[in-house]
Design goal:
heterodimer, A: alpha/beta, 19% strand, globular, disordered N terminus, B: 255 residues, 7-stranded parallel beta sheet, 7 strands
Chain lengths: 188, 255
């Protein structure tokens, strides 16, 4: 049931994932004929970027040192931007389209993550508009964690399944979209 | 049969044309046994024929989604002929373009009955049927980008799709509390080249080109793309996804 892509040889660069998420991504992408690379080497097969944002929470915006807030939010947004710029240049050079997925830090009650999540959302939408004509789709996965209406936390496999859908040909018309994977938390 | 929905029974409303027809065919290819419903018996027989020719299993049931007795009939026949229901795709929809000033109470009531009352009954009846199966389930509401943004000339349509968003999120929370749980999500297509669009605007290929030019991905939306998204929302790949609005619109809504 994966007729459109099983034969092709495609590479996804994964940045920022924990070892657990890396393994889950490799397993979820394999059925679509997509291999995962963690390295930075050039490859003609590179057509996918998965950037997993790292967040450092602060308990209070007011009492935290300003430097630590910017380190958690601004620097990570800057890192995401440069990862996009560098890798999309390589992907676009192949001329066959591609896909980018940002994975936001989980919404687990640390409100200090929210500005980064929203920054990444709008980076996603802006990049989707600019890269659409080149056939490069850009979407964001927004995981939850902790208590959810479905009664369990979001797992690496849940996130990987969403990323695999978003980068696959099955999401051929999806770009600039939010894919929320949070067991119903944001519906409340 | 193998596939992402192996041996699951799914009801697809509005399965005689457009997105519903393509969805019914894809779900069957992924192993589902599909109850296709709609108002056009000839088209219904045709889609069942297509699925059978592909080696799949399907039935057609004539269905007015705004009629609760019809829903009970659809579910009874589906359970009797295909087995316990595991999913519903509330796809049937009405659409018209008319300025607000010219839209009559009858116009509004007519589109409300299909798009909101029909969707409400689909969730209510779907919950009952899936709960009877004793297993978990998933419901997909086919909404629209016009449930998220306004569109001049589509006041009534946009209002109905906005209503479906609240219906979806609330049903998702009630479904999450059920044991086993039922997931409920809405899909928001952009412009998809279907009879719903061509019936209002005509089927001139130049129009399709214009829609494509107006879409960031520079392609026209096809029913197959929506079927793929619906498959994702029904399958275990989205096991932790509920209460979301999934926009699949070629980037139109990102602007």
């Amino acid at each position: 049931m994966k007729e459109e892509s099983a034969a092709s040889h495609r590479l996804a660069r994964v940045i920022g994932a924990t070892p657990g998420l890396e393994a889950a991504l490799a397993a979820a992408l394999a059925p679509d004929g997509i291999a995962v690379t963690l390295g930075q080497e050039d490859s003609q097969d590179l057509c996918i970027l998965v950037f997993v944002a790292q967040a450092r929470c602060v308990e209070s915006f007011v009492s935290a040192a300003a430097g630590s807030v910017f380190e958690g939010l601004g620097n990570e947004l800057k890192t995401a931007y440069f990862a996009l710029k560098t890798n999309v240049t390589a992907i676009r050079a192949q001329g066959v389209g591609g896909a980018v997925v940002f994975v936001a830090p989980p919404s687990d009650g640390h409100r200090s993550f929210d500005a980064l999540r929203q920054g990444l959302r709008l980076l996603t939408k802006s990049a989707a508009l600019e890269l659409g004509p080149a056939g490069i789709r850009v979407n964001i996965v927004l995981p939850g964690s902790g208590e959810t209406p479905l009664g369990r936390a979001c797992t690496d496999a849940d996130i990987a399944a969403g990323v695999a859908f978003a980068v696959s040909d099955r999401a051929h018309f999806m770009t600039g979209a939010d894919l929320v994977i949070d067991g119903g938390r944001m519906a409340q | 049969m193998s596939g992402r929905l192996a041996d699951r029974v799914i009801i697809v409303t509005g399965a005689t044309k457009g997105i519903g027809r393509e969805t019914a065919r894809l779900l069957a290819r992924e192993g589902a046994r599909v109850a296709c419903t709609g108002r056009d018996t000839a088209d219904g027989a045709a889609v069942v024929g297509e699925i059978s020719a592909d080696g799949g299993e399907a039935i057609f049931v004539r269905h007015d989604v705004a009629n609760e007795a019809d829903w009970r009939g659809v579910i009874a026949r589906t359970e009797a002929e295909l087995g316990p229901v595991r999913g519903v795709v509330n796809n049937a929809g009405a659409f018209f373009v008319k300025p607000l000033a010219d839209t009559t109470e009858d116009d509004f009531q007519g589109i409300f009955d299909v798009n909101v009352l029909g969707a409400f009954l689909g969730v209510k009846m779907g919950f009952e049927a899936i709960a009877r199966s004793g297993a978990s389930g998933a419901i997909v509401m086919v909404s629209s980008l016009m449930g998220q943004v306004g569109f001049p000339g589509a006041t009534a349509y946009c209002a109905t799709k906005g209503a479906v968003t609240g219906l979806t999120k609330t049903a998702a929370l009630e479904g999450a509390a059920m044991k086993p749980s039922i997931r409920v999500n809405s899909l928001h297509p952009g412009v998809i080249w279907t009879p719903m669009i061509t019936g209002q605007f005509g089927d001139d290929p130049a129009l399709a080109d214009a829609f494509a030019a107006d879409t960031p991905l520079k392609i026209i939306g096809l029913p197959r793309y929506m079927a793929d998204a619906i498959l994702f929302l029904l399958s275990d790949e989205s096991a932790h996804v509920t209460g979301i609005e999934l926009t699949v619109d070629g980037g139109r809504g990102a602007d």
